[in-house]
Amino acid sequence: MLIKIYPENPNQKEIDKVVKVLQDGGLVIYPTDTVYAIGCDALNVRAVEKICKMKGINPAKSNLSIICYDLSNISEYAKVDTSTFKLMKKNLPGAFTFLLNTTSSLPKIYKDKKTVGIRIPDNNIIREIVRILGNPVLTTSVKNDDEIIEYSTDPELIEERYEKIVDLIVDGGYGGLEASTIVDCTDGEPHVTRQGKGELIW
Predict the structure, then answer these.
(1) What secondary structure letter does DSSP report for 117?
(2) Where is the YrdC-like domain positioned along the sequence (predicted)?
(3) Domains plus CATH for the chain?
């Protein structure tokens, strides 16, 4: 199912539909400030496992990333020191994934790797979904890392490809082609490990 939501003024009724799917353990494709992404309620382990299987992700070896609404409850999910928090505050919302060490309140599937990526995209649709859900959303890009092709930017083409695999696709307009910039903050000295769309302000 494809539903249209406008980023400037997300319709509450449509947002609620997406949230209901996530609450029921469903998988959703949605826009971010970078590329379209597939996600689920990050605290629903079965849904997280479904996405990992679908994308061929081994959670013990790959970093899982979650989208939060803002920085206010970030310490629930990741360990953040003062200087890292200041850096994140300067750059978020924005096209960044900050890699941090996990805390005990995330399910075990995240703790195998001991790190988690934190995203707060500059996109009203997904942030509003997360705010209403009350939990972070696990996020992984629709595109494959080795190829970014047209289907991953056009919601109707995404629907053709994924309608039998996910429960809902949010059409928030054309998506971007460039992934987020990854900033590794796990060893106390932040450094960029992948330069993407975001230009980090130090």
Answers:
(1) E
(2) 12-198
(3) 2-194 (3.90.870.10)
**Are 21 and 168 a contacting pair, CB within 8 Å?**
yes
Complete DSSP assignment for 97-131: EEEEEE-TTS-HHHHTT-EEEEE--S-HHHHHHHH
CA nearest to 130, candidates 187, 77, 193: 77
88-144: per-residue pLDDT in tens? Answer: 999 999 999 999 999 878 898 988 888 999 999 999 999 999 999 999 999 999 976
Matching residue, tokens 């092709």: 149
The tokens for 45 are 């382990």
- Report which of 103, 125, 98, 130 is spatially closest to residue 114, judged by C-alpha positions: 103
What is d(CA 85, CA 96) in angstroms, rounded to the nearest whole number?
14
Write the single-letter amino acid at 174.
Y
DSSP 197: S
Q: Which amino acid is at 160?
A: E
Structure tokens at 47: 């849904």
> Which token pair is 187?
């060893």
Round the average pLDDT of the chain to a whole number and report it: 93
ω before 190 within 30° of 0 (cis)?
no
